[in-house]
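FIELD: query
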Amino acid sequence: MRLTDARAAAATFLESIEPPGEPLRLATDDEHVADVGWAWVFAWSTAQWFDTGEGHPPLGGGPIVVVKSTRDTWMLGSATPYEEQLKVYAAERGLEHTDPGAEAATELAAWLTAQGPVTVTPADLATWRRRDVGDWWLFEMPGITDTMFLVGEAVVYEFHPSRMSVDEALAAAGGTG
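FIELD: result
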């Protein structure tokens, strides 16, 4: 299944849960789409949030998953880590799951271990929000909203989004901003 077909399936699913008076929308750029091998995973929120940055994303639901081989479409729950839910779904159906950010998580865990007295493993980062931004991975610590990490090839760049945008951090890290 192509990404455009999966995006259409995800949009149809989103329309089916749209509350009256509260338009919902998929993220329009591909940086908010994850390819986990057997499925595409789409970020979404309210149209108001995308248009103005104001308001709050709806509570209770996670990203929308579209299974490549079947077009089955469903929403990740918010109670358990997304990666865990994806792995369980894939294992129950004999699908090969790939974690697109696994290599970056390993690199960040090693960097964090080198910074302090505690050993950090990639499994410790399973609850962190992450997304790919071009050739980089952006990691956000749960509960700490003003520290993020960009992980690229042999580079980890820590920054504070209250002081610089992701694009500025990419430029400072040597990526494209």
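FIELD: remark
The mean pLDDT is 85.
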